[in-house]
Design a protein that fits this description.
Number of strands: 7
Helix content: 10-25%
Largest sheet: 4 strands, antiparallel
Order of helices and strands: HHEHEEEEEE
Strand content: 15-25%
Strand order of the largest sheet: 1-2-7-6
Structural class: alpha+beta
Length: about 200
């Protein structure tokens, strides 16, 4: 007998029909077992039948009409105004740390020149043709918002700051506003020189 004739397509279909008919006679009362032919057999057909469950999406916000939770909206986005025609002034950001002789000569406090050891952020903003009385400055924990009649700056700060301990001075001869902000970090006791 030739092997090709044993495994031909028609002989396999006949065998599947024979097995399907025999199984229907044996399992008339067992409705939970999936019935499938050889051609319709999939990996999902193996094993017990799974019950379909419907998962409902739970909305966490108190107000059902809100799209975003307050935690998802970045701080300072309420100041963003893409339609404002005022130009952005030039600015520079500097990091400042307080060092003493024990840092410079002995390295006793473990400070290094990285920004992780800096205590203050100094922002110098060039404001040509601007008077001190025209400047509006608002500082949040992570955002600096500066507005003048001709310029507007919304600056997301690289580190959170303590907005209550900041100071600003306007250098009229340089036409520059210098804002110094105290960096507020978790685990800031690591950077303190008292310990």
């Amino acid at each position: 007998m030739d092997m090709d004739s044993v495994f031909s397509g028609s002989s396999l279909q006949s065998l599947a029909k024979l097995l399907r008919d025999a199984q229907e006679e044996d399992d008339d009362d067992d409705d939970d077992v999936p019935r499938c032919s050889v051609g319709a057999m999939t990996p999902g057909s193996v094993g017990p039948v799974k019950k379909e469950t419907t998962n409902t999406f739970q909305v966490k916000s108190e107000n059902k009409k809100t799209i975003w939770n307050t935690e998802e909206v970045p701080e300072g986005s309420e100041f963003d105004d893409t339609w404002d025609p005022r130009e952005k002034p030039e600015y520079e950001i500097f990091f400042k740390q307080h060092v003493g002789t024990e840092d410079v000569f002995f390295g006793m406090t473990g400070k290094d020149p990285s920004t992780a050891c800096c205590e203050d952020i100094v922002i110098k903003i060039k404001l040509p043709e601007t008077k001190y009385s025209d400047i509006t400055l608002d500082i949040q924990d992570k955002v600096l918002d500066l507005r003048t009649p001709k310029k507007k700056l919304l600056l997301h700060l690289p580190y959170p700051v303590n907005s209550k301990e900041g100071r600003a001075r306007f250098l009229s001869d340089e036409e520059t506003l210098e804002v110094t902000l105290r960096v507020s970090r978790k685990f800031d006791f690591i950077n303190s020189s008292d310990g």
